[in-house]
Design goal:
Strand order of the largest sheet: 3-2-1-4-8
Helix content: 40-55%
Radius of gyration: 42 Å
Low-confidence stretches: 198-205
Oligomer: single chain
Structural class: alpha+beta
Distance between the termini: 82 Å
Number of helices: 9
Mean pLDDT: 80
């Protein structure tokens, strides 16, 4: 079935090309009769209203406007549309630039064979939306054969926004054939279609008959032609999915490595802090041993942040204030409680507090 579908698709595309080449040789009035190149009806949302335009070739005429929330069209506008429906071309919804997202990106060159499906798979990477949340169009801007890369242009609009406008048009009796985007150039529209399938619009009966006739002639002449199966496209899509999965696994591994690095840095900081605290304690003990008189000994010593508290005995406790005042490591020496004399030993018992003012190693 895939071979037959691919063969018929190629037949249709060839016939459209052949039909276009033949009709280009006809005079203007015959070409319009054959191809149905009648004026297009364009609906443009702007500032809470829907503007109606008629476009034929490069000429664009404004037919009128209608409130976007109106349940019916104004009588004069409805009359204009009714008179023109017998010769109307496509009915186009022209979205303003503010309602669409445009993004350029690079893909493997093989993606050109199935560009829409590939872009659909990558939609959540290219935009904030999933594939089923947007209408979109993608086309190739540049092909880099040396690096096997394609530069593509993606244009997308939220389905909720577009569906609301399509439903409003249907309520007015208008079937939208194409969803395009307004530009600031003379062409007025980008010439794309955000809808997933293209519609023939109001193709003339003669044009359809000639197209079908050319298709039948081509099928009879070509017979059972050999077609390229779709297996290669399916394999490419599967390969691309595997590459995306592999990339996500690599990203998870990188994140795990970053977490490990952060844990190691935290551990290193802890070791450095412990080392610094050890150096500080050693410095404090060294200075205490050097400064305390021989007739003084300690029974308790505590280091709390930048405060040093000591309790002990001394022949002359008052001299300790002057001793610690001369040290560059200590400041603000003062007794925490009154000095008392021990009746049995005859020495003074003291409780002193100091502030550490230098913590260098």
């Amino acid at each position: 079935m895939s071979v037959v579908a691919s063969f018929l698709d190629r037949c249709v595309r060839f016939c459209h090309w052949w039909f276009g080449e033949l009709t280009a040789l006809l005079p203007g009035f015959l070409r319009r009769a054959v191809t149905g190149q009648a004026p297009d009806l364009i609906l443009e949302p702007r500032g809470g209203k829907i503007l109606f335009h008629s476009r034929q070739g490069e000429r664009i005429d404004q037919l009128g406007d209608c409130d976007a929330l109106a349940t019916g069209l104004p009588e004069d506008l409805a009359a204009k549309l009714k008179r023109g429906r017998t010769q109307a071309g496509q009915t186009i919804l022209a979205l303003p630039r503010a309602l669409v997202t445009m993004q350029d990106d690079e893909l493997p060159v093989a993606a050109a064979e199935n560009l829409r499906n590939v872009v659909g798979f990558e939609m959540d990477r290219l935009t904030p939306f999933r594939q089923d949340e947007v209408y979109f169009h993608a086309n190739v801007l540049e092909r880099d054969s040396e690096h096997q890369k394609l530069t593509i242009a993606l244009t997308a609009s939220p389905r909720t926004t577009v569906d609301t406008l399509l439903e409003r048009a249907r309520a007015w009796g208008l079937a939208i054939d194409r969803v395009d985007v307004v530009t600031e150039t003379n062409s007025f529209l980008m010439g794309i279609n955000l809808l997933p399938t293209t519609s023939g619009g109001a193709t003339r009966v003669i044009g359809r008959a000639i197209t079908v006739g050319l298709l039948l002639v081509f099928v009879v002449l070509a017979g059972l032609a050999v077609s390229i199966p779709l297996d290669r496209k399916e394999r490419f899509a599967e390969t691309l999915s595997q590459e995306v999965l592999l990339a996500r696994k690599k990203l998870a591994a990188v994140r795990n490595l970053a977490d490990e690095i952060q844990a190691l840095e935290k551990s290193n900081r802890y070791v450095a802090d412990v080392r610094q605290d050890t150096v500080l304690v050693s410095r404090v003990l060294e200075d205490m041993t050097r400064l305390l008189p021989d007739d003084t000994w300690l029974s308790q010593l505590r280091l709390i942040e930048d405060r040093l508290e000591m309790t002990g005995y001394s022949q002359d406790a008052a001299q300790l204030i002057a001793v610690f005042d001369e040290s560059p490591l200590f400041d603000e020496p003062k007794f925490r409680s009154p000095v008392t004399r021990d009746q049995r030993s005859g020495v003074e018992r003291f409780s002193l507090t100091l502030k550490l003012v230098e913590v260098g190693s």
